[in-house]
Structures are given as structure tokens and as C-alpha cells.
Please model this.
Amino acid sequence: MIIYLFLLQKKTSTSRSFQEEWLKEKDFKGWLIKKMINPDHKSYHPYCSACSVFLQNKKHNITVHMESSSHQKAMDVFLSKQRQQNSLATFLENPLYKNVTSLELRLCLFVAEHNLALSSAEHILQLFKTELPDNPILARATIGKTKTSNYVREGTIS
Model:
């Protein structure tokens, strides 16, 4: 009889915890992160950074999500954004970046200080590029009316 009562008892659900090895798996790398849903409960769950959704703490559910068409489409966009961010980071870390920006800003300030037409900055830069073709700073510098006016009016580049 005791065995019979034991079988009739309702099973309590076991709460699964986030498994750190999921982050190391090749298929999940780059998009799966460990994130807390509710800071009060201090429980971590898998989070798809491509789709911006929380997943259940079950490897099967993560795999099913990974194979879904919505995740595949989101991954295309996600990977494209990552490539752009990496490219921008590489550009900003380049030591020439500061020199190029400084040249562009000083050229725009020269145009503003001498009350020249904003479009003349582009022609002045082209003149310098023609006279100094081997200069790496001039080779990377670009300026036009829009960038010049933004520098002069707002101090920013668009």
C-alpha cells in the first residue's frame, strides 16, 4: 500500500539550472549568452542575443530554437551587424584615424575662419591629395559640403 501511495504522489518539477558548457559549444557560440531574467530570483537562463529572447534551461529547447527559421533569419542580420562592428572597431583602433579626423576638422575650421564657401573644403582637400599622393592621412580623408557644415555648425560628423 505504501508503494501505491508513493506512485500516486504528484511529481515535483525539478528546476534546471543554466549549464556553462552550453556557452562553449560550437553551435551556440556567439549568440547564446547567460542572462538573468529576474534579479530577485537570481536564476540564469539562456538568452539568444540574435533574436532577443529567453529560452528554457534545456539543451533540447536551445537546439530547437537554433534550428528554427526565425532564428536563422535573425542570425543573418546578427552576423552582419557583428561584421560591421568589428570593421568599425578596427577602423577606430587605427592610429591614422585620429590624424585623419584632426585633418578634416582643421580643414573645416579653416574654411569657417576665412569665411569660404563650405564646398571649397572638398576642393582644397583634393588639391592636397594631388600634391601629396603618398600621404596616408590625406589618402583616407574625405570631406564634402555635408560633413563640413556639420563640423562647422554642430561640431559633429554624420
